[in-house]
## 1
Amino acid sequence: MKWISIKEIINEAEKNNIRISDLVKREQAKELNVSIDEIYKKMKNAYDVMVKSIETGLKEKCELKIEQEDGAKIYKKYVDDGKSIFGTKLGQAVAMALSVAEVNASMGKIVAAPTAGSCGIIPAAIVSIKNIYGISEEKVIDSLFTAAAVGMVISNTMNVAGASGGCQAECGVAQSMAAAAITDMLGGNNNQIANAVAISLKNIEGLVCDPVAGLVECPCIKRNASGVMNAILASDMALAGIVSVIPVDEVIQAVKQVGDIMDDRLKETAMGGLAATETGKRAVDKIGKNK
Amino acid sequence: MDVFDIIGPIMVGPSSSHTAGACRIGKYARGILSEEPMNAVIKLSGSFKKTYKGHGTDKAIIAGLLGFNEDDERIRDSIEIAKKEGRDFKILEEDIENAHANTTEITMIKASGEKVVIEGASIGGGNILITRINDANVNINGLFDVLVVGHTDIPGMVYKITKVLYDWKININGLSLHREEKLGNAVAIIEVDDKISDKLCEEIRDIENVKYVTLLHSLK
C-alpha cells in the first residue's frame, strides 16, 4: 500500500464510513488477492507469537552477551510484590517489554514490529492494556492493523532502520504504532489516534542508535520499556483531548529530517554515544574481538 | 508495502538484517544448490564480519543451509545440528570488495564435485538480494519465483525456453543471461509473476541443450 500520510488514510476511512483497521484489512486483502478473513488470521498468528514471546521471556532464561540477564524477571517480581511506582497493572507493561526484548536478544522467536530491536513495544502495549481493560482479542488484533497503517505511512516516508534514521526510526516508530493501537482499542476517534501518534513521536524525536558493541542489547532492551510507557502516555494524553500543535504528518516529516541530519556515528555504527564510552568499548573486548 | 512487512517478519532475533536476512540467504543458497549441502565455506564480509558472533549471523546462514526458516527456533543450535549431521561448514572472515555492508559468499561442492558459489546481501528488514550465482552477476530479491536454466550457448535457446513460459501463460518480469564463453555453459535467470508447475519445469528440461532447471520459490 502506498499511503504517504495519516491524513489520507483517515480521509479515506471516513469517506467510506469505516474504521482505519477495516480500511487496512480491505486494501491488504485486495492487494494480496486473498479474503479479509485470511488477512485477519495472518495477523492473529503474529499476535499469538507476540503473546508467546512475552511469556517466554518471563519464564525462561534468556542468555545475553553484555546486558544484565533476567531483567524482565527481576522487574516482574518487583511489580508482583506491589512495589512498582506504576502500580501492579501498568508495571506489567514494563516487564512485558523487557521480556520480549530479552527473548529477541537471546535468539528467541519474536515479531519484528517494525524491527527486531523494537519488538517489545507493541506487544507490551496491547497486551497490558488488553489485560487492564478486559478488551476482546478480536479488538486487539484489529488494532494491529491501525498500528500497521501508521507504520506503513512512516515506512513510505523514511527508512525504518537505526542505520538510516537512528533509534527514533525503530523504537520511535514502534511507539507511535503502539500509541495508535491502544488509542484505537480504548475507543479513541481518528483524530485522537493521529494525536497519539504525533505526541509519541515528538517525545522521542532525535533518539540516536548507539548500541554497545553493535549488539541489540544495550540500550535497546531498556528502550523497549521506555517506549511502551511513552506510547501509553501519548495515548492517554490524546484520549484526554490533548492535541499536538504540529499535525502528525508534519511530525513524521520532521523525524525523517532529523534522521537525515543525524551524524553517522549515531546510526547503528557503534562509533558514538554509549557504544563509544569506556565501558562500551570494554564490552567489545568482553565478547571477543569485536564479533 | 505490505502490512506484514511492518508487523513482521516473525523471526528469531536479534536482528532482521543480521539474523533473519542471513538465514534467508542461506536458504536461498540451498535452493540454488538443489541438493543437501554437506559442505560450505561461508565468507562473511563488512558488518557481517564485524558483528556476526553477537548477532548469530553464522548460525543463521547455517540454519538456512539446513533448510530452516527465519522463525525456526533451532537457528540457535544450527552449528551443533550441522556438526551432528556430519556437515562441514566453515566460517571465513574476509571482506569482499565493493560489496554491500552485509554480504556473504557461500561456496558449496555438490556430490558430483561441481562447485557452486552464491553471493548475497541482507539489505534491511530481512530483505535480501542475491547478487551472484557462480560467474553470473544477478539481482534476485526473492520476491518472485525464479527459474534458473543452465544451457549451452547456442542460437535459439532463449526463444525455446521463453516459448514454454508463453505456452503456460506465465508472465516474465525479469530476465538475464550469462555465459562463461561462446558456445560454452550459459545460464538464464528468469523471474516470473505466476506460479510455475513441476510439469512446466519438465518441459524446459526436455529442450535439447538444456542442462538443468532449478525453480527457486519466492520468500513471501
## 2
Amino acid sequence: MGHEREPLLVAMLKDPVRVGELELSQWDTVIRQARVNRLLGTLAHFLSEEGLWLQIPCAPRRHLDWALRITQTHRAELEWELFSIAEALGSLDTPVVLLKGAAYHAAGMKASIGRLFGDVDLLVERRALGAVEAALMQHGWVNTHHDPYDQRYYRQWMHELPPMQHIRRGTILDVHHSIVPPTARLKVDPGQLISASVAVNDCPFRVLAPEDMFLHSATHLFFSEGEMPHGSRDLVDLYLMAGTKADEAFWRRVQARATALGLEEPLVLAVYFLDRLMGVALPREIRAWAVGTLPGGVRGWMLRGALDSALRVRDSHHRTMADSLKKGYLIVRGHREKMPFPLLVRHLGRKAWYGIFPEKYGRDAGR
Amino acid sequence: MIGSGVVIRIGALSFRLRSGLGFVADGVHHLYHHHPMSQDGFADFSVEVGPPRSLRRWFGRQACFRHDGASTFLPLPRDQALPLLEWGLNWCVYEHVQDRLVLHAAVVEKEERALIIPAPPGSGKSTLVAGLSCAGWRLLSDELALLTWTGGQVEGLCRPISLKNASIGVLRGIAGEEPFSPTVTDTLKGDVALMRPPRASVERAEEPARPFAVVFPSFSFGTAPSMMELGPAMAFGKLLENAFNVSALREKGFSALGNLVDHCCCYCIEYGSLADGMALVQDIHRAGRV
C-alpha cells in the first residue's frame, strides 16, 4: 500500500508535540485544513490536553479557542437533547442504542472530543419502532416528511423512520432499526448488534460493543449515501477508535466480528485507507489480509481512486473537475449499494416525476 | 490580488483576499488604502470573489463570494462584486468569532466614550456614522461591534462604510468624491457605494474603546428630531435582536449583554436629516460629560 505525503493537519493530530515546529504560514494551512475538514475542535482539544496551548502563536490559538467554545456549546446541547430523549423513552421497556456521535459522547470516547454534533441517531428493535415513534411524538418530536411517497420510502425500504424533528428545539432525531437498509447488498442482523450492545453508566442508553462501533462507523462511511461530506473527519473517527498501538487482540476481534456480521467489505476498506491516509499502526496480518481482499480490477481501481479523493484532508472546499467526477461516481455507487437496480430506477423515476409535476399528486396540498 | 492574494489587517483580524476580477482588485486597493497589507503570513480568513465555478460562468456575468473555497451566498451580478466582498467579510466575522459577543452595530468614539449604534438595515445607521466620522469622531465599525465579556470594552473592524441610495450623494457632498467606490445600482438594497474610512480611524483600528451609550437610530425623512431614554431591560431586548452569537455563547453572551446595558445609557433617537441626527448624538455625548 502506498503512503501519501502526510497533510500537516494529520501530522499534528498524530503527534501534537510537533506544533512547536510550525511557522506562522504553516499554521495558516493547519487551521484552514482543520476548519474545512471539521476537525478544528478535535485539534484544539488535543493541543490543550497535551499542555501545548501556550506554544501556539496568538493568531491561530484564537481560532482553536473559538472551536473549543463551539464544541462546549455542542456538548451542552447534546446532553440536553439526550436528557429529553431519555425522558420520552424512559418508560418503554426496550433497549435504546445510541449510534455515532451521540454514542461516542455517552461512552466518553476519544472520538467525541472536540466534535460538532448534528442529528442524534438511535437504534431500536424493529418491533419497538411503533412504540418509540409514538412516545417521541407525545414528547414533541414530529415527522419531517409529510409526503406519502417519502413516508413509504422510509418505512418500507429504509433502515430508519423518516427523520423526526423536535417541534420547539428544531433538533433532528433519526430512529433506526438497522444500520443498513434492508434493500442493501450488505445484509446485517441488527439483533446481533443490539444483543451485544453495552449499557452506559449513569444514563438509560446503550452503545454498540467497541468492535461493532468500529464496524458501524466503517459501514456508515463506505456504504451509505456515498456523498461523504466529511470523509476525512469520519476516517479520523476510525483512527481514534483503532488506537495508536497495533493492538493485535483488538484487530482480531474486529475481524472475527466482521465475519460474523457480514461486514468484511467495509472493514477491508477501513483498514486500507487507515493505513494509506492516516498511517495507522496495524498488525502485519490484518494489513496483508486487507490488501489481499481489496476489490480488484477496473472497478476496484476506480473505487480506490474515488475514495482517495473523498477521504483526503483538504486545504479548501473547492473540488477540481476530477474530484467532482469521483464524487459523482461515489454517489452513484452509494445508491447502487443501497438498493437493487430495478428498485433504484423506480425510486429515482418517481422522485424525478414528482419533481417535475408536483401538483398532480397533491404533494404541496395544505402547505 | 491574483495568485496567492493579499493579506489585509483589519483591527485584530486579518483577511486574505483574492480576486481574478480587475475592478475588485482596484476597488480593494482604493478602499483599503490606509490598511496594513502584506503578501503572506497568517490570515484569519481566506476569501475570494470571482466568477461562479459552475457552467453558469459562461452565461450570466456573476460573482461569488467564497471562504475556504466554499460559496457562502448565492451569486450576484458581477458589478456587485465589491459590496458582495464586504458582506462576505462580515459573514466571516459573525460566523466564526466566539470570544466576543458580535453585535450588528456601528461603533464611533470621541474623547474615550464610544457609542454603540445597533440597527436593522434602512434605519440610517451607516449614514449617521459616516457623517460622524467626517466630523472628527473615530470610526470603530460600520457593521459589527465585538464586545468583551465584561461589556466594558468594544472592538471594531474599521472597514469601508456601506452607503445606500440618497445617503451616497449626501456624504459625497461632505467628504468629496475621492474616498468613494463607484456606485453599484440595482442591488437588493438599492444603490450602494462604499466609502473609505478616515486614515486616523484606520491607524487606531486595534484600539478598543469603552462603551458609553447605546443609541438606536431611526431616520425618516422630514421627521422632527426627538430622543427617548430606554430602560436597561428594553435596551437588552432590542440588543438581543442584533446579537449574532448570543446563543452559541450561552451564559457568557447573555451576561456580556447584561453588563453592557448596566454600564451604558440607552436611547432611541428619531430624526429627519443627517444634521439633526448628528446633533442628537452630540447631545448624548455631551450629557455624559456632566
